[in-house]
Amino acid sequence: MTAAVDQGGPMGHIRYASDVGAPVDVAFTYADNHRFVPDWMFGVAGFEPAGELDRGRGAVFSTDTRLGPWRSTLECEITDYRRNVVIGYTLRGRLSGTLTLHFDPLGYGRSVLTSEARYATPTGLARLLARPVESAVRAALRRTEAQLRREIEEFHGTDLVGRIA
User: What is the model's pTM?
Assistant: First the structure.
């Protein structure tokens, strides 16, 4: 797993990449199903379509979030979508930012999942909170990526090295 942080300007950027014991089409199919999102996305307790679309670019979801004692319903839209390549989620509301999942083939029955988060960094006096915010986003993305990888492998019926689980 690798991590990269780029904090140029008002947006923070964190990225993790890891091997997944499933081919790209299986990994993408799992991640593309909105019913599974609460199983792998950190802090999400509910993820229901808010319009006619339930997948693909332009699909909007009502997202119930639970982060400790804080609970809220936010809007999440799929803003980047290419089948078996990328799904980009944009969160709007009191929490805002993007989560982008990239899927790349790695070899027989394996793929690389790259998870990227972009988020607004605090400005002004709130900049004192920049490191705690980055730390919280980094931890949430790591948990999201690790859980998604486990869920995909369970969905596919294999572990990281492709053995039947």
Answer: 0.84
